[in-house]
Amino acid sequence: MTRIWGIVNVTPDSFSDGGRYLDVDAAVSHGLRLRAEGASVLDVGGESTRPGAERVGAEVEQQRVLPVIERLAAEGIPVSVDTLNAATAAAAVRAGARIVNDVSGGLADPDMRAAVAESGADYAVGHWRGFSSDMYARAEYRRAAREVAGELQERMGEAAASGIAPSRLILDPGIGFAKAGAQNWDVLRGLDEIIALGPRVLIGTSRKRFLAETLRTAEDDDVSEGRRDLATAITSALAARAGVWAVRVHDVAGTRDALSIAHAWDGA
User: Fold this and answer.
1) CA geometry: angle at 159 spanning 155 and 161, to 5°?
2) Where do runs of H (alpha helix) occur along the chain?
3) pLDDT over 60 at 17, yes or no
4) What's the chain's average pLDDT?
5) Which of 241, 223, 242, 141 is nearest to 182 (CA)?
6) Which CATH class is domain 3-265?
7) Which distant-in-sequence residues (6+ apart) come within 8 Å of 57 by Cβ?
8) Domain coordinates of the chain in residue numbers?
9) Is 143 a catalytic residue?
């Protein structure tokens, strides 16, 4: 069964749920609810990576995420930290996180790979071409899936050179990161090229802009959160059928149901 990562954003400005769980108690309660709904991993982040988001310092980021990670890990829940900062990654692992989810794949902070190697945590390596402020200017591809796979293979080599074994790697093609509109669909249609690299593959389409763009019509410009969650569940189920190891979502319950139906259809 494909695993589900539940998103716990401890931020004031994330694109869909910023400010909802900035309070530690609210974030922990949200995480526990996602766990009860079927999340295998809770992915805790303290810095928004939405388009145009401003960076926050590692100290502020740690103030947001570490108390949440400590309390969720104390419940025996596998926790991932969603961060671009090596210092935050190391502190989060000390607080109980088992996975470092770096959407930049080690490009944002030159110390990240060494920090992960030393920590012993698993490492989710994202495909990335630049910070949110200008990432769409870098969204140029001829064959998106093949180019993303090639760049992820480079990140794999860098991780290996830093002492991170392939068994600790999780590859994320970075849907929505330096990819505009149809380029995201090109990557999803070519998931086999990324899966063929060997490590586990994580997909995150949750509530992203390209889903809303696909659903939007001239008569109906308002794509609600609920409609985005339904589109997320469908794309997650299709990704699961393609062979991905996990999907990262806001709506765990809806995605769990979609995955259950897809697995039943396949006779699993």
Assistant:
1) 115
2) 24-37, 58-74, 86-95, 112-119, 144-161, 182-189, 191-195, 209-215, 225-242, 252-265
3) no
4) 93
5) 141
6) alpha beta
7) none
8) 3-265
9) no
Task: State the amino acid at position 86 in one-letter form.
Answer: A
With contact defined as beta carbons under 8 Å apart, do 110 and 158 qualify? Answer: no
Confidence at residue 219, expressed as pLDDT on a 0 to 100 scale: 65
Of residues 249 and 22, more confidently modeled? 249
Token code pair at residue 214: 């696909």
Q: What is the pLDDT, as a whole number, of residue 133?
A: 73
Of residues 3, 35, 64, 248, which has the active-site annotation?
Answer: 248
Output DSSP code: residue 168: G
What pLDDT does 132 receive?
77
CA 5 to chain centre: 8
- Would you call 138 a catalytic residue per the annotation? no
Determine how many CB atoms are found less than 10 A away from the CB of residue 208. 21
Question: What CA–CA distance (Å, rounded) separates 108 from 102?
Answer: 9
Indicate the pTM of the whole model: 0.93
Give residues with Cβ within 8 angstroms of 197, minimum separation 6. 149, 152, 153, 156, 171
**pLDDT score at 16:** 58
Q: Given 64, 208, 228, 256, which residue is catalytic?
A: 208
* pLDDT over 70 percentage in the chain: 94
